[in-house]
Amino acid sequence: MEDDKTTATPPTEFVWKLYMMLEEGNDNTVFWTPDGRSFVISDTIEFSKTTLPRHFRHKNFSSFVRQLNKYDFHKVKSTNDDGEPVYGENGWEFKHPNFLQFDTSGIDSIRRKLPEKRRAEGPSGYRELEDELHDLKRKHESLQKHFTSLSEDFSNAIGKLSGLQESLKKKEETMNHVFSMLAEFEYRFERLGMSQDDTASFDHIKRRRTDPSAAAQAQAQAQAQAQAQAQAQAQAQATTNYDDHMWPSTTHTWLPLHPPQVRRDSNGKAHPDGHADNTAESTEIHQNGEVQKILIASDDSDCVKICSTLLQKAGQVVEVIPDGVDAVEFLQTSASHVGLVLMETVLPRLDGCSAVELIRSMNRQVPIIMINDGSVNPKLEFLLQSGYVNEVLARPFNKDDFFKAVSPHVSLASY
């Protein structure tokens, strides 16, 4: 009896708390085995977070294992017929011969061992160290997986950042090119005596547009051209039904602001009036067997809707870009796929006239029609005189005005 008192102590609340925790049966992280002779902790991390604090007021799994060892609970490992762990690699199973689910009579006999007895039993200390080592290895593996995942995320972020840097570099190069061309444009203005600050230098433009005799002569010439074209279009209009009520009822006379250009068809035949024979195959629209697009650079929804509808009904493919910078970049990369450009003079980020300057520095072939509100525009006048712009379409315009400007440059279906 003397020896018994020195080697063991009366039972404490720990064993009964352990039994009540297992009897709750509402936690899938800790449960009895089917035969009720041992219990299993299936998820040590979740067990430490949720179950331990409710019953033992701490979250230290290693401390819980040490308590089990002090009451002579042993860790066991159940395997199936194939030698695989029944409760997985991370499952912890503990057993005590007197700790049974269906027989509580032996619980009071489970005593906590005194330190002297624990040191004398040597293997218990080793078992505790092995458990701690296994726990550390498990945590190390978890950290290593987390580190690998972070490394992959970092690599992906670096790749995306490199892509953004390359995109910004291209944007910067484009803007530098824009500023360079604008500076050259202003220099040309000054050399020609066409500074925007000097409005007197545009008196000859205003006089030409306000001179009654010049206006009457231009109007008569435009009316003669309109009558000739109306006769050619009469048969097509008789068989084609378009929503003419969509267009303004007032008649607007389209007046070219520069001398008529001489155009040549695919057979080399010259057409001084600017109208090539549309019966021949168009090398501007059909190139390498592919139908080219008509680019509409405009942020005016009404203008885009009207132009797109007319062109699509005439059998054309349309690409719409709402600002000047994007229009220049599109032509820089896809010039071979564009057969005609309809450009607003007023555009976000880069005005239409400056955009034309940049386009002409890269491409002198694609025809460009400027859409203007009819006001005097010195830059536009300069581009017309320089041959950078092929036509000017003044607003408001109707269907006939539109096709009169477009038809010399592309092959259209009946409209």
Automatic annotation (TrEMBL):
GO terms for cellular component: nucleus. Keywords: Coiled coil, DNA-binding, Nucleus, Transcription, Transcription regulation. GO terms for molecular function: DNA-binding transcription factor activity; phosphorelay response regulator activity; sequence-specific DNA binding. It is found in: Nucleus. Its main location: nucleus. Residues 214-238 have a biased composition (Low complexity). Residues 209-286 are annotated as: Disordered. It holds the Pfam family Response_reg. The keyword DNA-binding applies. Residues 126-153 form a coiled coil. One of its GO terms (biological process) is regulation of transcription by RNA polymerase II. Residues 293-410 form the Response regulatory domain. Transmembrane segments: none annotated. Residues 262-278 have a biased composition (Basic and acidic residues). PANTHER family: HEAT SHOCK TRANSCRIPTION FACTOR, TRANSCRIPTION FACTOR SKN7. This is Transcription factor. It comes from Yarrowia lipolytica (strain CLIB 122 / E 150). The lineage of its organism: Eukaryota, Fungi, Dikarya, Ascomycota, Saccharomycotina.
